[in-house]
Write a structure and sequence with these properties.
single chain; alpha/beta; binds adenosine monophosphate; 503 residues; 9-stranded mixed beta sheet; 15 helices; 24 strands; 4-stranded parallel beta sheet; binds malonyl-coenzyme A
């Protein structure tokens, strides 16, 4: 038994039909993907990987990268994907915290990783076109691999999510966490082997990996596996697809193209949105243009998917629908922890088989975020209306979501505060027409000309992933504070709300 490999990988062995379409239109059959996963699993085992060892992966998206995920499942290793935007400085932390046995990176990053990793770590390379040492070794390995036995509560993946205090936390997800969610979603969204998903999301986060990939593998469908989201390529591939999943930016970008019409999307069965709030305005504009009502759902790294609008029934704009089967959701008062009345905003807490097993090597952090009765405190503020629809109305955590990526202001402030010429800084999210929210830094200088905007942005890019870096920097003589001395970010958000109005 190996719950995820049995459900997602084993059925591929006998599939002669295409499972993946590459960007150039070429196909990979299920049997081909299965064989690749076996060959890669042999490479991992030869490199010393045993069950629960971490395989840290920072590579471009490709069918080989997906096969690597499946190989980890089969070898019982913990797949640990990282955003390709992370800098060398950011990687140092993950190497130290996760202590991987194997690192798979792009050929360009190889020297840096070999220099940073402990001598015992095997560093292999994989480029977006499938070249590199991983596949060189895999090509000569046998196709058949005896999938390692794992139980439902054994871990399958560690997915890092930034922490409010600046330190990233590795969310530990078990076979049952991921499989129960994939099963629920296949059912809730009526996925079948007739579906072809247009897959333009990255596969290093929950959305592209668990929601998109696990669901399609479980349903026995196909994926058009694009390396990234690009309107031109998406429009060119749309005729082959039946369904699409995306962050709201995907849909606002599609709406800016006049070729995206009712006719060009008439054959589509379903568009799904998540990872960030879909504005009701976008939901309505999409329906007016295409006749499709986007299905919005809500989840997070720690829980995978919690709620979804209905497939049949009203998909209500501005809401994230109802708890998925098996998931319990409640709204509690921030002060008392008691459940609040319907219609009242409060902390959104969830419990169910989807909820993760805790943060990697952080038992105290894990304990802080769970209630005694097993509910996980999501950090989102929500309300439930009289019909049972849940709306996410705010966040208790100081978090910015830009184009579907999470940015923790504390992490950015820490870097900016280290710069010469900066006295202090506050980082906020403000409305942005493309990214939903964009990162803005408000800086107090040591003296009037001690540092300027380009210097702050350039210095941030040295150490932080590009999506975390401020899109704009403003200077104030002092930061607004309340009587307790706490920076009033709401004031700053109001002050800078119009920054990207005409962007
Ligand atoms: C890229 N850039 C961003 C950005 N993405 N800036 C802010 N926010 C973002 N999301 C910056 C780069 O640093 C670079 O800056 C410039 O934009 C161009 O980079 P790019 O890679 O060419 O950008 P683009 O292709 O336009 O990417 C935008 C995007 C992408 C929206 C297509 O960010 C994306 O695919 N987002 C999906 C994120 C996602 O999968 N989230 C799921 C998390 S899971 P410069 O300065 O160098 O030019 C989760 C749970 C759940 O949340 O519920 O699903
Ligand atoms: P991550 O840590 O990347 O998994 O991000 C999870 C966070 O994304 C959640 O806690 C929410 O704040 C946010 N999120 C995900 N889906 C939605 C949605 N449909 N609407 C609003 N926020 C969302």
């Amino acid at each position: 038994m190996n719950p995820l490999a049995d459900a997602l990988v084993a059925p591929l062995a006998t599939r002669k039909d295409p499972v993946l379409y590459r960007p150039d239109g070429s196909e990979l059959s299920g049997a081909g993907l299965y064989a690749l996963s076996g060959q890669i699993a042999h490479v991992l085992v030869r490199a010393g990987v045993t069950p629960e060892d971490r395989v840290m992966v920072q590579t471009e998206k490709s069918v080989e990268a997906l096969a690597l995920y499946l190989a980890c499942l089969r070898a019982g290793a913990l797949f640990l994907p990282l955003n390709t935007a992370y800098t060398s400085a950011e990687l140092a932390y993950f190497l130290g915290d996760a202590e991987p046995t194997v690192v798979v990176c792009s050929p360009q990053a190889q020297d840096d990783l070999v220099a940073q990793a402990a001598p015992s770590v095997t560093v292999l390379t994989l480029a977006g076109d499938g070249s590199g040492t991983l596949m060189e070794q895999a090509r000569t390995a046998p196709n058949d691999f005896d999938t390692v036995v794992r139980g439902p509560d054994d871990l399958a993946v560690i997915l890092y999510t930034s922490g409010t205090t600046g330190r990233s936390k590795g969310a530990m997800l078990s076979h049952n966490n991921l499989l129960s969610n994939a099963n629920s979603l296949v059912e809730a969204w009526r996925f079948t082997s007739n579906d072809t998903l247009l897959h333009a999301l990255p596969i290093f986060h929950a959305h592209g990996l668990f929601v998109a990939t696990n669901v399609m593998l479980k349903a026995g469908g196909r994926m058009i596996f694009l390396p990234n989201f690009d309107v031109e390529t998406v429009l060119a591939n749309l005729p082959k697809a039946t369904t699409m999943m995306g962050v709201p930016t995907f849909y606002t970008r599609l709406l800016t193209d006049p070729r995206f019409t009712r006719e060009s999307s008439a054959h589509m069965r379903l568009f799904i949105s998540g990872s960030a709030p879909l504005l009701a305005e976008t939901h309505h504009a999409f329906e007016a243009r295409t006749g499709h009502r986007i299905l919005e759902r809500y989840g997070m790294t720690e829980t995978t998917m919690n709620t979804s609008n209905p497939y049949e029934g009203e998909r209500r704009a501005g809401t994230v629908g109802f708890p998925l089967p098996g998931v319990e959701a409640r709204i509690t008062d921030a002060e008392t922890g008691e459940a609040v009345a319907d219609g009242t905003p409060g902390f959104l807490e969830v419990r169910g088989p989807n909820v993760f097993r805790g943060y990697w090597r952080m038992p105290e952090k894990t304990a802080e975020e769970f209630r005694g009765d097993g509910f996980f405190v999501t950090g989102d503020i929500a309300l439930i209306d009289a019909d049972g629809y849940i709306s996410i109305v705010g966040r208790a955590k100081d978090l910015i979501i830009s184009g579907g990526y999470n940015v923790y202001p504390k992490e950015v402030e820490t870097e900016i505060d280290l710069l010469d010429g900066v006295l202090e800084s506050a980082v906020i999210g403000v409305p942005h027409p493309d990214f939903g929210e964009a990162v803005v830094a408000v800086v107090v200088r040591n003296s009037p000309q001690s540092i300027d905007e380009p210097t702050v942005i350039a210095a941030s890019k040295e150490v932080l992933a590009g999506f975390k870096c401020p899109k704009s920097v403003s200077f104030l003589d002092s930061l607004p504070r309340n009587t307790m001395g706490k920076v009033q970010k709401n004031e700053l958000r109001k002050m800078f709300a119009g920054t990207f109005k005409n962007a």
